[in-house]
Amino acid sequence: MKVLLGVLRLTGQEFAQRDAHKIRGYIGRLWEEYDLLHNHGGDGCLQYRYPLVQYKVLQRIPHIIGLGEGAPLLAKIFLELKNLRIGGQVYENLHQELSHYETEFGDADEPVSYQFVTPWLALNQENYHKFRRYGLELNKPAVVQHEVQLDMLQSILVNNIIAIAKSLKYTLQQRHKPQVVVEPCEVQFKNQPMVAFKGFFQINFHLPDLIGLGKSPARGFGTVKRFLSET
User: Contact 176/158 with Cβ under 8 angstroms?
Assistant: First the structure.
């Protein structure tokens, strides 16, 4: 099916990936009446759903991604945002580039290859301990090859995609067995070290470029981009 995707780039100043959640916080406070921008309810509690507006810093440029119902909200930010206040500093004279287009989402007849352009936070506390039992050396990262670990990551990846599909009211049409080629890395999440993964995967499914998979896609983790596989 076709789904609307919006991409708002804020150029003219350089930011770090860790600034993504600060940008999310600032935008969310400015337009707190739009819960899709921050995923919090009126009582301040976090709403557990796939975020349809996501914030990320790619190649030092802030990107705000809107998917489905989240895409039209980017026009409001584009028209009304005057500056960014991040970490006590005011960033003015930002140049904004906004684009909207329809893109494919759903089952595909042929495998589609994707790259994680930001680390994928795949593991929760429970499956982290299971994953670690079969080996995990962050000081000597290597491509995950253990069968149990690969099965876990394949299952988690499919569940991540199902979560997006539910938010877009789409039902997967087939059972998926993605090919996952990733290696672990360490990232800072809420000032705590966590295990993430970088690499590639292939699956018979169309995903929009620049959306995120896994834990905390709203903060920029797990961003994917399609690429042409050599195989």
Answer: yes
- Integer CA distances (angstroms), 92 to 73, 82, 136, in order: 21, 7, 44
Q: What is the mean pLDDT of residues 156-170?
A: 97
Predicted TM-score (pTM) of this structure: 0.91
Residue 67 CB partners (closer than 8 Å, separation 6+): 3, 4, 5, 6, 52, 53, 54, 164, 168, 208, 211
Asked whether 31 and 89 are in contact (CB, 8 A), the reply is no
Which two three-digit tokens encode residue 41? 């309810």
Strands 89-91 and 84-86: antiparallel
pLDDT for 196 beyond 60 = yes
The rounded mean pLDDT for the chain is 92
- 74-111 burial by CB neighbour count: b if 16+ within 10 A, else e? beebeeebeebebeeeebeeeebeeeeeebebbbeeee
**Residue 48 confidence (pLDDT):** 78
172-211 in b/e form (b: 16+ CB < 10 A) is eeeebebebbbebeebebeeeebbbbbbbbbbbbbbbebb
Alpha helices (runs of H) in the chain, residue ranges in sequence order: 20-30, 73-80, 125-132, 147-167
Joined tokens for residue 145: 């090859």
pLDDT of amino acid 229: 60
Average pLDDT of the segment spanning 25-46: 84
| Helix/strand/coil for 228 | coil
